[in-house]
Design goal:
alpha/beta; Arc Repressor Mutant, subunit A; D-Maltodextrin-Binding Protein, domain 2; 9-stranded mixed β-sheet; two-stranded antiparallel sheet; 11 strands
Length: 315
């Protein structure tokens, strides 16, 4: 005698979440609202809402609460998010392993600091993209503090960051060495009066700024900060057009130093030079699943470094 589908389906199977529901859940978690998630997924808001309702029903718990115009994750949602993301990443890998060329492309969300993003990542990602044409990458460029927060909330697969990383829950892999360079415009009236000059620095939360302040405090005391900017190009141009002193990665000012529009005013003290040298790191969160694409990018970054001459790594 035939029975209904519900009667024939064991309770454990009826309560299982689908990949479509988990995709809606993860997207809403990062987007902060159903409308934004629907836009990212190219679905209707009602379809995303229904997927969330079905998932909450299957799990027997509430995943989001209203917070103004958006949604806030519940404790249950925060516990579920890492596992849900891992399942989605593994499902994408299954498509790749099966050779489904029509849907096997993998997506990576990668962060880079405002130094590494414009001055290191273009060459690295162009090289990686040529070797891995099915991997699409979203590159997010922010300062180290903001990227650490994004890693903490699991919205990035990996981040290439600089300086001191104060986030205790991150996994850090040393990558490149970098030197912070002090500079002024050519023709500055007092290029050695570092303690009396006004400084143009990167914004709070910048690894470059923190390295400068820590290294130069014994020399300058509290520097006179006259200007802050979160963009290296803008900061360089401000210094070239005024009597500020600036500090950025040597990578960021190499062209201007070679051309002569900026001059290097970094003191020659070996101890100070060591203090102005910092590490670039590859950072990940241990709770975020490392897909094959993430592992390939990290391995490629290490090989990319090994292929470059030592002078290029610290210049």
């Amino acid at each position: 005698m035939p029975v209904s589908g519900n009667a024939a389906t064991p309770p454990a199977l009826r309560s299982r979440a689908t990949l479509r529901q988990l995709e809606a859940f993860c997207t809403v978690a990062f987007a902060g609202s159903v409308s934004a998630a629907a836009q990212r997924l190219s679905r209707t808001q009602s379809a995303v809402s229904l997927a969330l309702q079905e998932l909450e029903s299957a799990l027997g718990t509430k995943l989001f609460e209203r917070a103004g115009r958006g949604l806030r994750q519940t404790d249950a949602a925060r516990r579920l998010l890492p596992a849900a993301m891992e399942l989605l990443d593994r499902a994408a890998e299954l498509s790749t392993l099966a050779g489904d060329a029509s849907g096997s492309a993998q997506h990576l969300a990668v962060g880079a600091s405002r130094t590494i993003g414009p001055f290191v990542m273009p060459e690295l990602l162009a090289d990686f993209g040529g070797a891995h044409p099915l991997v699409s990458i979203e590159l997010v460029i922010e300062n180290t503090e903001a990227l650490s927060a994004r890693l903490r909330d699991l919205s990035l697969d990996a981040a290439f960051i600089e300086g001191d990383v104060l986030e205790p829950g991150l996994s850090l892999q040393p990558w490149l060495k970098d030197e912070v360079c002090l500079f002024a415009r050519a023709g500055h009236p007092a290029p050695r009066a570092l303690a009396q000059g006004r400084w143009a620095l990167r914004e709070r939360g910048s690894g470059t700024r923190e390295t400068f302040l820590r290294a130069m405090r014994p020399v300058l005391g509290t520097p006179l900060i006259g200007l802050e900017a979160n963009d290296s190009l803008a900061l360089k141009r401000l210094v070239m057009n005024g009597d500020w002193f600036g500090c950025l990665s040597r990578r960021a000012v190499a062209g201007e130093l070679a051309y002569g529009s900026l001059i290097d005013i970094t003191p020659r003290s070996p101890k100070l030079r060591r203090a102005l040298t910092r590490s670039f790191w590859i950072a990940t969160h241990p709770q975020r699943y490392r897909s094959a694409a993430v592992q390939a990018l990290i391995a490629h970054a290490a090989k990319h470094l090994a292929r470059r001459p030592a002078s290029a790594q610290s210049s």
